[in-house]
Design goal:
Oligomer: heterodimer
CATH architecture of the largest domain in chain A: Alpha-Beta Barrel
Shape of chain A: globular
Low-confidence stretches of chain A: 1-25, 27-38
Largest sheet of chain A: 8 strands, parallel, barrel
Distance between the termini of chain A: 40 Å
Helix content of chain B: under 10%
Order of helices and strands of chain B: HHEEEEEEEEEEEEEEEEEEEEEEEEE
Largest sheet of chain B: 6 strands, antiparallel
Mean pLDDT of chain B: 90
Distance between the termini of chain B: 48 Å
Number of domains of chain A: 2
Mean pLDDT of chain A: 90
Number of helices of chain A: 11
Structural class of chain B: mainly beta
Structural class of chain A: alpha/beta
CATH superfamily of the largest domain in chain B: Galactose-binding domain-like
Low-confidence stretches of chain B: 1-30
Order of helices and strands of chain A: HEEEEHEHEHEHHHEHEHEEEHEEEH
Chain lengths: 428, 366
């Protein structure tokens, strides 16, 4: 056992008793003396409980994903920066802070190019802080001009890339699961990165076109999942999906998917998501991207209370739908909130000068985040302010100095003692 | 706001007729007259058959659309003409119901809603409670607005009514008397009732069964013309909805749409949805003027905000036929316990470069 929460330790003591615990400690030191790493790979799988309730199991024990999306791009750089090879090793500073907060998982949208550097990050996070890694792949979603999911050569190219990733990292003890895609399903609706094929173009009915694209895409993802399992049967494969859109098609063609990794931005609530998923595609769900920014676009100033309010509410709903909470849907296994640090490049990725400025301009509108919805044109979502940790230009150990936002502390306390019934709690 | 003054004010309001009298004074200075205010006449000294005392108020509404709005109403405000721009409301904490008496000249006059609070702005009311639509009888009848459990700490819109030309094509005359705030120890907070099915969003222009207001104009709202009393070959009854989208991108958005909301303009900022838990589907009839008009989305629910809808369901894109066709949005498995966005459509220029004219009718939850 690398790391245990206080709760897990208490539970273990109740079950095993002091004598067994001592024996376990003895074995731990024996293993060290023999040069055998105690951090052996543990099988990760999903356990199905009665009533379509699901639990993620790691090393034979239930595991709640208390996670965060991690992409520590420093001020002045953009998404192309290879932070994995940063000599200042931001993950060591951040990993310590994460562990102190209670985070047990990080999500990477896609690993860096340098496999050894990636392995180093995964190992450091796991061995030093007990933090496990979720690795994803964009599935070519950002390929120019669009992802040609109906094209066999495109499919093969992306599949090869994914299987190479799996081959490289499947034996990392810190690995938790794979996520295929992010919000790629929106391309099936033609909302973003629209793709087509001759056959689809011949179809006059746009609803049928949508269904055709969805069937192609979800079948393809399923094919990759099936291939992954041939080489890595020890880690679940998640289907990344924007909202629940399109999952009625996935249900028909994606039986090899183990769980859904949903990207959800619905303010303080996830609404009927958990029950709705049961009805649409009965799989466990990881809320793989959610959160709130810490900038009030209406009052034009940082608002850490606003961010903390939304995040705590979101985590409460996640906990209310875990398998062991009887009143909930029981199909949620946790979440990876967006995100650990602010990213100063995000408002305009094409303006290098802007990467060193913390933009106060909102990039999109979402009325679910109602506190600052009265901002001009209702533009209230500040993409550069989603971090639990603010960055400053001041340098500390070769990194931008980290300042913890209120949400960090609020969630730290929530995870210590989750309060799931807060009806009397004052509304923000 | 000083509590002492507030208490005195509340006591004054609690005297039967006091609020009506105050309203009379405000109305005489045209305070709170809304919509087609030119269609409204008020006689606050009508001595003929008052409910009690010696006089009552008579409102005459001509439905001539003097300001081109198609609706009209009156708010009782404090101070006069306060549309949330200045302080002046009362702290009515401790009251739990508003009662009033009303009757129509002939019977059958339709009032779309009576309301308490709901004035927005810098100094917004802390509550917004509505009842309606109500069909008046020719004899006096007492009505109650349950305000139990509501935050009444600041109410500048003490009472109001709204009606429409569609509900009263020939206008109407009605009477009000004894409008008052009260404390009733037996009154309990109103729970949101589960609506029985079918539950109409639109049936006919003047139908009292209609629910939700097509107030949520989105995107290029300047591109939309909306007529909910079209006589052009309705599917059923005497009218249907005609929508003209000209695709000129008046606001530069390149798309447009309308949400039917409750109450009007509720973008999740107010607790105002209906409990439609019994609904398993939403059906409506639609046709395009030429056929081939493409609507990107028809939707129910999905309004997000402080009071978010409990769920949403969509169909689309839909290419309309020239003849009436029924469409269904499946609601099985959906949580319809709180729906403030009763219906919505949206389309865009890219798929309708010449614009689109289409018709809707018989929109309802079943």
């Amino acid at each position: 056992m690398v790391r245990s929460t206080k709760c897990e330790v208490r539970s273990a003591m109740r079950r095993a008793g002091r004598g067994i615990l001592l024996a376990a400690c003895g074995l731990f030191f024996m293993a060290l003396l023999c040069g055998v790493s105690p951090l052996t790979k543990q099988k990760v799988f999903i356990k199905t409980l009665p009533g379509s309730r699901y639990q993620l199991m790691v090393g034979g024990r239930p595991y709640i994903v208390k996670g965060v999306c991690y992409n520590p791009v420093p001020i002045g750089k953009n998404h192309e920066y290879d932070w994995w090879s940063d000599p200042a090793k931001p993950w060591l500073v951040d990993g310590k802070l994460m562990k102190e907060m209670g985070i047990n998982t990080v999500r990477f949208y896609q690993p860096g190019q340098n496999a050894e550097a990636v392995k180093k990050v995964i190992r450091d996070l796991y061995e030093r802080f007990g933090i496990r890694t979720i690795l994803g792949n964009w599935l070519g979603f950002w390929e120019y001009p669009c992802p040609f999911y109906a094209d066999k050569s495109f499919q093969e190219k992306i599949k090869k890339e994914v299987l190479e990733m799996v081959g490289l990292y499947k034996d990392e003890p810190g690995l938790l699961m794979w996520i295929l895609g992010n919000e790629n399903n929106y391309s099936c609706l033609g909302l973003i990165n629209k793709w087509s094929s001759e056959e689809i173009d011949k179809e006059p009915d746009p609803q049928r076109q949508k269904a055709m694209r969805a069937n192609i895409y979800y079948s393809y993802v399923n094919e990759i999942a099936r291939e992954i399992k041939k080489i890595d049967p020890h880690h679940p494969v998640a289907l990344g999906n924007g909202e629940l859109i399109g999952l009625e098609f996935a249900k028909e063609v994606s039986s090899d998917i183990d769980l859904i990794a949903c990207i959800i931005y619905r303010g303080k609530t996830f609404g009927n998501l958990f029950n709705s998923l049961k009805f649409t595609f009965d799989k466990p769900v990881l809320i793989s991207e959610f959160g709130a920014d810490a900038y009030d676009a209406y009052l034009k100033k940082e608002d850490q209370n606003m961010q903390a309010f939304f995040l705590e509410s979101q985590w409460r709903m996640i906990y209310q739908n875990l398998a062991d909470y009887p009143q909930g849907a029981g199909n949620c296994i946790g979440g990876t909130m967006f995100e650990w640090t602010d990213e100063w490049w995000k408002h305009n990725e094409y303006d290098p000068a802007g990467w060193a400025l913390h933009s106060e301009d909102a990039g999109w509108s979402n009325s679910s985040y109602y506190i600052d919805i009265r901002a001009p044109k209702n533009m209230n979502m500040n993409e550069e302010w989603f971090g639990l940790v603010a960055l400053s230009k001041e340098s500390e150990d070769g990194l931008n100095k980290r300042t913890l936002r209120k949400a960090y502390y609020v969630l730290r306390e929530f995870w210590k003692k989750p309060v799931l019934n807060n009806k009397k709690k004052k509304k923000r | 706001m000083k509590k002492l003054l507030v208490v005195l004010a509340v006591l004054a309001l609690a005297v039967p007729g006091a609020l009506a009298q105050q309203a009379t004074q405000q109305a005489a200075t045209s305070t709170g007259w809304m919509g087609d205010y030119g269609d409204i006449k008020l006689n606050d000294q009508v001595a003929q058959k008052p409910q009690s005392g010696t006089t009552c108020m008579q409102f005459s509404y001509t439905a001539k659309k003097a300001q081109g709005q198609g609706w009209a109403g009156v708010y009782w405000q404090n101070p006069a003409n306060n549309w949330g721009t200045k302080k002046g409301g009362f702290d009515l904490t401790g009251m739990n119901k508003v009662t009033f008496w009303a009757r129509g000249e002939k019977g059958g006059e339709a009032i779309q809603k009576f309301m308490v609070g709901g004035i927005t702005g810098t100094y917004a009311d802390t509550a917004n409670i509505e009842i309606g639509p109500i069909e008046l009888t020719s004899t006096w009848k007492e009505y109650t607005i349950n305000i139990t459990g509501k935050d009444l700490s600041y109410i500048s819109g003490g009472f109001g009514w709204v009606t429409t030309a569609d509900l009263n094509p020939d206008g109407c005359t009605f009477y009000l008397d004894n409008i008052k705030y009260e404390l009733d120890p037996t009154m309990k907070p109103e729970t949101r009732k589960v609506e029985s099915m079918p539950f109409s969003v639109y049936s006919d222009r003047s139908s009292l069964k209609n629910h939700y207001i097509p107030s949520g104009w989105m995107g290029d709202y300047g591109d939309i013309k909306y007529d909910q009393a079209s006589k052009e070959n309705p599917y059923l009854g005497d009218s249907c909805i005609k929508i003209i989208y000209n695709g000129k991108a008046a606001q530069g958005a390149r798309w447009a749409g309308i949400y039917w909301q409750n109450p009007a303009n509720n973008w999740g900022t107010q607790d105002g949805g209906f409990n439609l838990s019994k609904a398993t589907k939403f059906t409506f009839w639609a046709r395009g003027q030429k056929g081939g008009e493409r609507i990107e989305e028809f939707k129910v629910g999905g309004i997000m905000g402080e009071y978010s809808d409990s769920d949403s369901a969509t169909i689309g894109p839909v290419i309309l036929n020239k003849t009436w066709t029924q469409y269904t949005i499946d609601l099985k498995g959906k949580d319809m316990s709180y729906i403030s966005g009763g219906f919505c459509w949206a389309t865009n220029i890219d798929n309708n470069p010449e614009g689109a004219t289409f018709y809707l009718d018989e929109m309802r939850y079943e």
